[in-house]
Amino acid sequence: MKIKKAVLRSPGVLEIEHPEVPACPEGGIVVKVQACAICGTDVESFFHGQRMAQLPPQLGHELSGIVNSVGEGVGLFREGDRVVLNQSVPCGQCPDCQRDRENLCDRTLRIGGGFADYIAIPAVAVQKGNILPLPAGLSFRAATLTEALAAVVNGQDLLDIRLGDTVLVIGAGAVGCLHGQLAKAQGASRVILADINPARLKNTEVLSGADLLIDSSSENLSARVKEETNGLGAEKVIVACSSGAVQEEALQMVAKRGRVSYFGYTFKEWPWIKFDSNACHYREFFVTGAFAYSRRQFQLALDLIARGIVRVDPLITHVFPLESLVEAFQTMKQGTGLKVLVEF
Q: Residue 268: its pLDDT value, please?
């Protein structure tokens, strides 16, 4: 049987091919994809190429679906099971994996190709628990946001948000909203959400759980944050956008001994920023990156969504068919949507 699969030939050049249904790997499974969300790395790959991908990259990894066939030796799943994919399969043997830092494993196998009717999942992913059953009542659409929330969980684990903290989130996209909701769930007394897009900011007030919205296109963000915190700054600052200028400004708004998360990456063409090392020296704040997630964090994210502690359905603003994938990428890039999905 012929299927449809999106293949990126070069940046900006995408084709819909019609291969056969993939053969079921020994010890693996084949999943009939029901929904696949667009990740920021998919957008980067489509428009610019991406540092972790080789052309043609296997686009699409935030997927959920139904087990279509099961390979020999698989006992955990059967045809018809509803599942979600954790695309990152760590090696389990390197120093990072041994030290409970599997998200930093340099030998991670990343599974992609979810912008297709069917996808083959290798045995190693099944054996290492990277295919998870969907909890009863959880929709295929909602399940596709598990990876995004898992990355947010990792970022906030590094921040160590505590009861009473003021948390500043810069970037009112889907990830920014997830950060706001999770920070509140972890005990933050106040969440401040900032963005340069006033329309998007207003639309995400309820979705983010924010107590205060700041339109940084019309007012000085640093001055307003200092005003709102009695000159102290925020205990935790999360840069949930791809802007080196915002990463620099974040250092001005963090409280003494506070923590800054560079959750959003800068573009590979210019990764450098100006870092005020004297400010860091005298105020003793900490700056961390936040990359990917562990299998434990992925499972936790799925549980948080299934239990309704973090609400994801309202974040899904656009759903496209596979044939409109280029339009879906453009919608993400333009910032007119929050979470954009392809549904089959």
A: 65
- Pairing of the two strands 109-110 and 118-121: unpaired
- Same domain? For 169 and 84 the reply is no
Main-chain phi, psi angles of 108, to 5 degrees: -60, 135
Which amino acid is residue 327, in one-letter code? E
Do residues 161 and 271 share a domain? yes
Q: Are residues 120 and 167 in the same domain?
A: no
- Residue 101 maps to a domain: yes
The helix, strand and coil proportions of the chain, stated in percent and rounded to the nearest 5, come to 35, 25, 40
Q: Residue 102 gets which letter from DSSP?
A: G
Token pair of 188 as six digits? 């933050």
For the chain, the domain total comes to 2
Q: Are residues 111 and 62 in the same domain?
A: yes
Q: What is the mean pLDDT of each run of 10 residues along the chain (344 residues)?
A: 93 94 98 96 84 67 98 95 98 97 97 97 98 98 98 98 98 97 98 95 91 97 98 98 95 98 81 94 98 98 98 97 97 91 98
**Burial (0-12, 13-18, 19+ Cβ within 10 Å), 30:** buried
CATH at residue 29: 3.90.180.10
What per-residue confidence (pLDDT) applies to 51?
54
Task: Tell which residue, 49, 65, 48, 59, has the closest CA to residue 17.
Answer: 59
Amino acid type, 308: G
Judge residue 337's burial from the number of C-beta atoms within 10 Å of its C-beta, 0-12 exposed, 13-18 middle, 19 or more buried: buried
Torsion of CA 176, 180, 186, 191, to 10 degrees: 130
Query: Which residues constitute the domain of residue 328?
Result: 5-145+312-343
